[in-house]
Structure formats: C-alpha cells, structure tokens
Amino acid sequence: MDAEAAKLLGAGLAAIGCGLASIGVGSVFAKFLEGALRNPGAADAQQGRLFIGFAGAELLGLLSFVVAALLIFA
Amino acid sequence: MHQFSIQPLFGSEGWSIAGYNIAFTNSTLWMAIAAVTLAFFVAGGMKRQLVPGRWQMAVESFTGFIDGMLAANVGPGGKKYVPYIFSLFMFILFANFLGLLPLGVIGLHAFTFTSHFSATGVLAVLSFAIVLIVGFAKHKLHFFSLFVPHGTPVIMIPLIFCVELISFLVRPFSLGLRLFVAMMAGHVLLEVLSSFVISSGNAGIGLFAIAGLPSFILMVGICALELLVAGIQAYVFALLTCVYLNDAENLH
Q: 3-class DSSP state for residue B121?
C-alpha cells in the first residue's frame, strides 16, 4: 500500500470518531432531558452546564474531523 | 474549495506594512459588514424608552441574556465583562448568520470568516489574554493555585499540576478550533450535498429523482441545522469565555 492510499484510509477511519462523538452528544442531551423531566424546576438553571458538556463532547468529535482534514490536505 | 479562498479585493494585493501584506480581503470585508450590521442593530435599540418597541426589545433581550449568563457563571463580579462578552457573542453570531445568507441567488458570494482558524484563533487568544490579565492582576502569583485544586493529596500534586496546566493551556486552541471546525464542516457538508444535486441533475432525470431530490430535501434540513449550529457555537464560545473568566475572577 502506498503512502497516499494509507492516508486516505486513515482519514476514513478518523470519521469513526465523528460517529462516536455523535453518541456522546446524544447522551449529553438525553441525560439532561431525563433529569429535566424528573425535576423540571431545576432544569433551567442547569442549561449552562448542559452546553459545557455538549461543547466538550462535540470538540472531541471535531478533532477527528481535523485529523481527517490534516491527513487528506497536509 | 472556492468558498473558503481568501482573495484581495479592490486592487489591494500590494498593500503592506513593514513587509507584511495587509490587503483588504473578502474576509476583511465580511468582518466589516458584520461589525457595521451589529453597530446598526445595537444603535437601533438605544432609544431607552420606558415602554420598549420591538427593536429595543430585541437588543435588550440580547443584553439581558448575556447579563444573566455572566451573573450565573461568574457572579456579581461578572458585571464588568458584559460589554466584552456581548460584543464577542454578537460578532460571532452575526458572522455565522451572514455567512449563511443565500446571497448566491443574486450573484454575490457570502464569506464566513469564522470558518478560518486565523480569525477564530485571534478571538480565542483575546479571551485567553483577558483571563490571564485579570487573573494575574487580581490574584498576583496566587493565580497559580488554579492548577492545584483544594484538598489535593500531597503525592498527587505534581501529577494534578501537570494535568491542570495542560488543560489550561489548551483552552485557546479548543475555543478557536471548535468554532472554526463547526462552521467549516457545515459549509463543506452543504457544498457536498449541493454537488450531488447538480451532478445528478446533469446526469438525467432518472438519476435526479433517485439521488438529487433526496439530497436537496436533506440540504434544506441541514440548512436549518446550520442555523441552529451558528447560534449554538456563538453561545458556546461566549459561555466558555464566561467559565474561564470565572476561574480568573474567583479562582476555584
């Protein structure tokens, strides 16, 4: 396998990371909703933390996109 | 891809200061448009009427939103950061939305400058610099206690210090990277889907019905998602800046 093909395969494998991050983002919102429905009174105050968790989960998925882009273009 | 290429406009490619090119590019143009639109939007709401009209209400709900965010995350000491966080949030929000405008319909090309790391990186470094300046000005060298949380066992201190230091230093990168990648990925996705529509349309009516039409419907949905992402990313950027400012303002 030459280097170019290996790079493209690696970029494709990096896309798995995007899928895994989507599980993470889904679980962040799912758990929030679960808690919010149990105690709607406390839900609004926790929205900031929800988005901090979302940002963390999303960033790690976006990093896999960056890895893929670096493999293809750099 | 053409939509991300930066070109000098109005014959300004030769402009330079001390050997650095300072050409007026399309990125600069859209930053200026975002700033002017924002100034226009805010100026329209500065009437200070007792019973606010629609416009004043729109501006005041944004300032109230930022005010509430700082009060919740930083506390009473966060009041003085409202102008910075408000400008940051609104600038990014306007930039993201202006970049999504369907101006291609009338032959213009919208440019999302938040899809470039050089633009978002500077915004992130600005936030990080404010955190450092506030932290060191307010707590002097005591600011370093940020890296050793309260109640850490003595044996763990070297390890925790390294981990906290790395997580602190990586903040400007993660802040800038998140916005840039989210905006770029969304625009690339739209471009890929639109290329499906165009090439399947060129290939004949049958292929268009199978591949082009579903992609087009998906594109409309993704456009709505992109509007959501544009708002969320501006919000997350402002929120994380608030969280980091809280570290600087109150330590742990």
A: helix
Cβ atoms within 10 A of the Cβ of A68, count? 20
pLDDT(B232) > 70: yes
Binary contact (A59, B178; C-beta < 8 A): yes
Query: pLDDT tens, B11-22?
Result: 777 777 777 877
Residue B2, pLDDT above cutoff 80: no
Distance from CA of A46 to the nearest CA of B (A): 10
CA distance, residue A3 to nearest chain B CA (Å): 24
Nearest-by-Cβ selection for A65 from B185, B239, B243? B185
Kindly list the domain boundaries of chain B, sorted by start residue.
2-250
Give me the total of CB pairs closer than 8 Å, taking one residue from chain A and one from chain B.
33
Helix residue spans in B5-153 (DSSP H): 26-44, 54-73, 82-100, 117-139
| Burial label, A36 (beta-carbon count in 10 A; 0-12, 13-18, 19+) | middle
Query: Is B16 in a helix, a strand, or coil?
Result: strand
A1 and chain B in contact, CB less than 8 A: no
Rounded to whole angstroms, the Cα distance separating B148 from B151 reads 9
Which of B69-78, B83-92, B203-212 ranks highest by mean pLDDT? B83-92
ipTM of the complex: 0.73
**At a CB cut-off of 8 Å and minimum separation 6, what does A70 contact?**
none
Domains of chain A: 3-73 (1.20.20.10)
